[in-house]
Specification:
2 domains; 5-stranded mixed sheet; elongated
């Protein structure tokens, strides 16, 4: 491998690191449910770590302590009822400790009653349509033009120079902070999947079926997601952008849309 090749590969690696959001864990998100989901994830993770330490620790100690060079005599018993009870009871207890808080969180996730607002989300190849049921606001949300132009073959545009490349849209979803927002998902053609990690929501949009989800954002800001179901040749080009704003700003946004119509 030549020196120039090595430098080129190093440059690509550094460029990728500078422009990508690297994460080794799921985010805590901006809702109470996303934080609960994160805490459940970490609880199960640490249980698995503890189980791994115990199991592999016993294996390593047994291999060292009972190796052939120590002239250890093999056990003569065929089974131990006490051991069987212990290694059955402990996993059952651990599963109960995991199942109870998990069930509580899952029940909360499905409780979309009494929303402050509802939005119908319809998937298309390859864009999203949003209809606010509590107002006359509805619009399509497609890949933003800078990303659209940069993705074209031989466009001459450096994708790394485009801010939020493939993660920006022309019309974002706008919701007020602190409001309970119910989302109703369906599709006009094939199966899509609406995924925004900071909301801890990933729901399939299926033709002829309506799926539900809800969230209550605690923090203002812009949160991005993508279609997470392979839906055709432009599957990678239908991002999702949710803007959480203060209630007064949301009211002004709705009024501006009504004025345009």
């Amino acid at each position: 491998m030549t020196r120039n090749t090595i430098l080129s590969l190093l440059g690509l690696a550094l460029a990728g690191t500078a422009n990508a959001e690297w994460a080794l864990n799921m985010p805590k998100g901006i809702t109470d449910l996303s934080l609960e989901t994160y805490n459940l994830h970490m609880m199960v993770f640490w249980w698995c770590v503890g189980i791994g330490i115990v199991v592999f620790g016993v294996m390593v100690i047994s291999l060292i302590k009972h190796r052939k060079s120590n002239n250890v005599s093999p056990a003569t018993f065929s089974h131990s009822t006490t051991a069987e009870v212990i290694w059955t009871a402990i996993p059952v207890i651990i599963l109960i400790l995991i199942a109870v808080p998990t069930a509580e969180t899952m029940v909360k996730m499905e409780d979309s009653r009494k929303p402050d607002m509802s939005i119908v989300v319809t998937g298309f190849q390859w864009k999203w349509h949003y209809k606010y049921q509590d107002s006359d606001v509805e619009f399509y949300s497609s890949l933003a033009r800078p990303s659209l132009e940069a993705r074209r073959k031989q466009s001459g545009i450096d994708p790394f120079a485009v801010e939020n490349y493939l993660l920006e849209v022309d019309n974002p979803v706008v919701v007020p902070r602190g409001a309970k927002v119910r989302l109703l998902f369906t599709s006009n053609d094939v199966i899509h999947s609406w995924w925004v990690k900071d909301l801890a929501i990933k729901k399939d949009a299926i033709p002829g079926i309506v799926n539900e989800a809800w969230f209550r954002a605690n923090e203002s800001g812009t949160y991005r997601g993508q279609c997470a179901e392979l839906c055709g040749k432009d599957h990678g080009y239908m991002p999702i952008v949710v803007e959480v704003v203060e209630p007064a700003a949301y009211t002004a946004w709705v009024n501006s849309h009504d004025a345009e119509q």
